[in-house]
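2024-03-11 09:14:02 DEBUG pipeline.ingest accepted 1 chain
2024-03-11 09:14:02 DEBUG pipeline.ingest length=469
2024-03-11 09:14:03 DEBUG pipeline.predict start
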Amino acid sequence: MWSDILTASPLLAMVVLSLVVLLIEAMVKKGEVVSYWISVAGLALSAYLAFGSIPHPQVLFNEMLASGGLGGFFSTLFILSALLTIILSREYISKEHENFGEFYLLILFATIGMMLMAMAADLIIIFLGLELMSICLYVLAGFIRNRPISNEASLKYFLLGAFATGFLLYGIALIYGASGTTHIQPLVLNFGAISSSPFFWVGIGLLAIGLSFKVGAVPFHMWIPDVYQGSPTPISGFMSTGAKAAAFSAFVIVFAHHFDNADRLRLALAVLSAASMIVGNIIAITQSNIKRMLAYSSIAHAGYMMAGLAAGNELGRDGIVFYLAVYTFMNIGAFGILGLLEQEGEKNLEYSDYAGLGARRPLLAATMSAFMLSLAGIPPFAGFLGKYYVFVAAINAHLTWLAIIGVLTSLVSVYYYLRLVMVMYFQEGDNPLVDRPSRVGIAVVLVSAVIILGLGIFPSSILSIINHL
């Protein structure tokens, strides 16, 4: 028991950190500054512990949790996402006059839910982690209470999210009824025998629907544009990275295996992938609001990653993990710049507001251009390699048609990503911007840009870790 507790130290460190911040908010008047610094320090320590656990995979607590390995890698990713989000949020929530320490606390609890999903060795743990993460994100989406669009985003996310969770839980119940277990490893090992039951297939379908909602795959994507637009901008970035990565970690744990007699499952995942790539990219072209453009972009990227999932091979799994790592820094950085330049009342979020940014804020314009080029999949940025790996995995799985759709829709995405770059550098504008963006915030987005460039040039620095998960 004690060995399990020590092995689960990254998760327990996050729990202790959250409880400490909770006590600070309950006992210290105007303790948001203290909560901020303790959250940053605690997340840095937790990230160190999670990264250190990667080479030592173990199954804990009566085969309910899996520490280290893939869970340790994803936990490190979630914690870094939370850390960057909290740093970028400090000035933003002060600017919006919503500087309350509960904001940091909700991010911490949401991160614990994400870690539970990634470390799950049982379907029930996936459900518990999903609910903990989702409840916190429902509140964070509506954190700016005096903004109607924020209230609308929170309500839509809550109603549709609760409905999707019902699908997931009912699917788990059917899988248990057909197999007699909710442990993931026995389900994977005995897939061929269990798959003779029609109830099992219905359960797998409902489970896939619940997780598809969380990653924003078509046709379960309708909540994403409104929720991303109405949420506080740093939280939109957190949802598009941490929450999406958490749902994909559950997808990888359950579905990223080579199953016999699973052609129907692979075809269904491939159709979801193709639909997401097509719908996300085409509708993104028509957007004038940058947050909505990035929302539809996230739908398209969910489709790219699901191509690796549909492949059902090791390259597909590794490609998804690499893609998620890269995507986290790309989107945190892009939404971070939006948050730094956004003014109170949702100003400076349209394409036209960024006209002339290259002349007025050359550093931020260059950094945003790097994120857009990486999202478009243009080398030498890491976004290119992320797409390359999942498309090659699809080709190796005889899903060449899916890879072709991915390449063609990636070409479509170049239009709306480069459109922002063109506006920043080739149009003149006099729209007032924030006088002095946070230096710490600028440092965060610069570090994110350096990481995606570094991973694009030296991908082996992270692939050597992923290949051994």
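2024-03-11 09:14:41 DEBUG pipeline.report The radius of gyration is 21 Å.
2024-03-11 09:14:41 DEBUG pipeline.predict end
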